[in-house]
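Suppose a colleague, Dr. K., hands you the sequence of a protein chain of 286 amino acids and asks what its three-dimensional shape might be. Before reaching for any lab equipment, you can write down a predicted structure in token form. Begin with the sequence itself:
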Amino acid sequence: MGGKAAKPSQELEKEWRNFDWGQKEELKKRLEKFSVSHPNVKCIKILVAGQIGAGKSSFINSVNSTFQGRITSAAVVDSSGVCSHSFTQQLKAHQVRSVKGDLPFYLTDIMGLEPEALAGSQPEDVIKTIYGHVKDEYKFKPEDPINDKSQDYISDPSLSDKAFCMVYVVAADTVQYMNEQLNEKLKIIRHRIRDSRIPQVIIMTKVDEVCPLVKEDIRKIYISKKIKEKMQLCSDNIGVPMCSIFPVKNYCDEINTDDNVDVLILKAFDQIVNLANDRLRESASK
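The predicted structure, expressed as tokens, is then:
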């Protein structure tokens, strides 16, 4: 009599991406001592964009939480579970802070992207924000993207006004359902900033919601077949290489930070700021 077939393992034989789980303090110290590559730029701006509900504001809070050793909430988050429209309405630059003081980075939160043509932030809003044309705290108008006639338009942006990396936040539980219209908006943005060689990084959130292994033990993130499949699908859909995709878990319902969650966020952030600093150096040398 034949028994039930064994369920295929959800684990790979070994980690497919080498990752040092003990590097948290080293990463923190390096980022706290970070020196910006241009003397006239005190803080590097990094734009954090994403589909509504993906967790971009939560990612900004999570970065600050890792440095402060406590749960922070400077970027306002909608926890109602109803994400029909973007909760973030204004452009807001959040300085990264540690217990030792302010760090030379701004994570700029923008209105979420939505599939509908006249909803959420428009590609032109995102592009102009990257190039430094939009003032902080500008309130977006989906039906009327910002232009050079707008009151909050910066006609001659400085290097400090510009973003030198675009971080796109994608939720692991919705990557397979990415809407065609949303992909088209992303394609427009990616193509428009490509010629300026603005680095593009993807943060893939909600990894614990798509994989029981990872929910039980975050350290299994790089031996999870499910997470690798989601990352590959994300790469195929958006066109960003796997080496620029970082799976993380945002802080959502926790009241304390966790070393393993922190180190994933810190490693992603370390890559982001180094790419941004490299681009700033190139831009300033012209």
